[in-house]
User: What shape does this take?
Amino acid sequence: MAWTNIPDSSLEPGKPIRSVDGLALRDNPIAIANGDAGAPRIYNAAYAETSITWNKLVAGAATAFNSGAFNLSFGAGSGTNTFSFDVAVPHVLMGVVMVQWMVGLGVEGNYARLYHGGAIVRQGDQVADSQLWALASLSLGTNTFTIDFERPSGGVMSMSGLMIAFAPIR
Assistant: This one.
């Protein structure tokens, strides 16, 4: 579907709609969803937190740049434990980074933070959320993503999960 601009002058109050404008009104939402040339774009703010999950992705819907599984265990003492991986991309583009984890032993609902380089791109609760995802502007070359989990003073915990970075195929 191609995006069709509908001039205000084509829509006359109290008059029947022209079929060409009716078809455009029908087809334009499809052009938006497909990301067709000229159509408005859907941005990160349009999606509810945790609205995209692994089971909504189908084979061939995205190109995975990298993924990694983690199994973090740490003993007494406060602090954080992290998992990082690098994503090499062929050109500048928008990508999606998703992290999901299983709530493990000793997890008390402290924060989990997702970083792109040194900047926090998303923060959530270890117990309530169990996943974080974000759109990220990926630059040419190597991009580093990190998830860190805070542990309470004297806390012992374990955490396992998966992180993946991918971009839509276009």
Notes: The beta strands are 62-74, 79-89, 93-103, 111-116, 119-125, 131-138, 141-151, 157-168. The helical segments are 19-34.
